[in-house]
Amino acid sequence: MQSAVLRSIDGYEIRRCMPEQMGQVIDINLRALPEHYSNDFYYELLEGFPEGFLVATKGESVVGYIINRIEFGFSNIKGFSLVKKGHVVSVAVLEEHRNKGLGRILMEEGMKAMKEKGCKEVFLEVRITNSNAIALYNSLGFKVSDRLRHYYRDGEDAYLMVRSLEQSTTHE
Ligand SMILES: CC(C)(COP(=O)(O)OP(=O)(O)OC[C@H]1O[C@@H](n2cnc3c(N)ncnc32)[C@H](O)[C@@H]1OP(=O)(O)O)[C@@H](O)C(=O)NCCC(=O)NCCS
After folding, report:
1. Quick check: 110 and 18 in contact, CB under 8 A?
2. Which tens digits make up the pLDDT trace of 39-74?
3. Ligand 1, closest atom to CA 98?
4. Rounded distance, CA 83 to CA 76, Å?
5. Any atom of ligand 1 within 6 Å of the Cβ of 126
6. Does this model's pTM top 0.85?
7. What does the pLDDT look like over 121-133, one tens digit per residue?
8. For FRET with 73, which of 11, 100, 103, 145 sits at 20 to 30 Å CA-CA?
9. Which residue's CA is minimally distant from atom 25 of ligand 1?
10. How many helices and strands (H and E) does the chain possess?
11. What distance in angstroms lies between residue 49's CA and the mean position of ligand 1's atoms?
């Protein structure tokens, strides 16, 4: 069973992730990214913010996902004010399904869900060499707000990228 379609593009559909689809999500993560998590962590994130845990499907197959979390803390945009903010924990699309707009739509739908939960901004960490992902985030209005030294286990730095949610979350 799959959840309702939120958006569709060229035979692909964006939906909320169902627990039965978690195996496919974990498999995509293992194939697409060096950052992995325990199985329990995925289910915790799904339970914590199901509206922000989305999959891209083609038929019954999951071909991409985005996992978001809602956090509360200091603003990355407005100095020392405390805000509710969305954190993009992980996003990936299987290689053979990339460059078709799925990454963008997963990001847009994730930000929409964050906004509906009252988040004022969204942030993420990205490897400084991940030019495809950085290009996507730039085109969605994210800006680099910091460089996190040795953020990843292999020693690579991350860019902390941030975007306000007090503006439209779709690509214009
Ligand atoms: C990052 C990722 C999720 C993008 O997914 P995608 O479905 O290919 O993205 P889209 O098709 O929506 O591309 C959107 C934008 O990304 C950028 N982009 C994507 N692939 C690109 C490429 N090969 N070269 C340059 N820019 C690229 C472009 O800005 C593109 O904009 P456009 O629509 O105007 O062309 C995908 O490349 C991926 O899974 N990478 C491996 C996992 C990863 O690095 N995740 C991010 C961790 S922070």
Report:
1. no
2. 999 999 999 999 999 999 999 999 999 999 999 999
3. 8
4. 9
5. yes
6. yes
7. 999 999 999 999 9
8. 103
9. 132
10. 4, 8
11. 24
